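Your task
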Amino acid sequence: MSVEIKETSATVRTLEVAIPQADLDAPFEKKLSQYKKQVALKGFRQGMVPKAMILKQFGDAIRHEAVNETVDKVVGEVLKNANIIPVGQLKVTKFEDNKEAGVALTLEVEIDPEIDIKGYDNTGITVPDTAVHEEEVQEEFDRLVKMWSKDEHVDRAAGKGDVVVGNYIEVVIDGEKQELPENKEFRSLLGESASPGFDEGLMGVKAGDKKEINFKYPDDHKDERYRGKTAQFNVEITDVREIVPPTFDEEFCKQVGVKDVDELKANLAESLANQKQDAAKTKAVNEAIDKLIEQNPFEVPNARVLDLIRWSLNRNVQDEKDAVEPTEEQVKTLSPEAIREIKKHRILDFVATKEKLKASQAKVDERLQQMANAYHIGFEDLKNHFRQSGRINQLRDELRVQMAADFIVGIRPAAEETK
């Protein structure tokens, strides 16, 4: 047997393998013996079929199986001895089977190239300080108040801030009558509609009113089909409802998990601060990654790119039979981002390995506690689930990669965090 390994590119190794017939004789005889024990032909009991008949009827199939098994074994040993870890399936580019000379084949193996990332310990990029302003907290507070508010029927004319409920009778856009939806009811919060003209036409209406509203859609309307067009709506009003904000008494505060309004606003300020800091860190990490990619060019195997694109297209598929293969256009469109993501992961893995970064048990428990709080489940129950499912190791690896991301923007772990 002879094997030659060629470095076709940074991500491809070409193997030229020749297996002489002498090395195929024993596997063939072993496979023939298996057939002889199992085959039953008309006129012969199982295991009693003459060798010549088996060779005549199954000879080609036996050789095919023997060759395949031998090739798989030889190639596996070659890859192991050469410390080549394939990425994706091997690609056979040439295969010759000569029953006298033996088998000769050429195959290509995609691999991850070795990388040596320089400059990761001093990218010059850090996470800037962020601040939360009172008006931002108030805006978030107002949003929550609106979300928690209820609307109640009022026996009066509608005004700004009220909800008007009604039914479409007729709709005409740019002189063309429109087909009405099956559900003709509408609810409009006056003053916050995407069509101010429609809201203005509803000002002052009462339940039971019928009204024709004429207006022009804004040129920047969210639905480009209606931008700048004239509209005529004939509607019937069925209800006028007033927005009633919640009363922040002891019972309501208990429902939302706070002591009082001050604590709620303090929680909002903390949440906004964390969001801003996380966004700033994400931006800094991406800038650092882009800088390291530019300073340390390396290739990515095509199999990795296709696997990531395939995963992104099918990550929400519940049944494997519904999975799809990426089209040429999708591969062309999605490849640049896929390549960047793969390079990002490899760089962070390199940093974590080089710096011997490892998530401590305290770090793991801290993350599990955050998840338990978010999902409103017991910490120990969640921890046991992660251990039994094997997800705990995945979580450790995720934290390890996050530590590497912190490292390249100047955030170093405390000594005890890596123990």
Q: What stands out?
A: The CA atoms of residues 142 and 148 lie 10 Å apart. The first helix runs from residue 22 to 38.
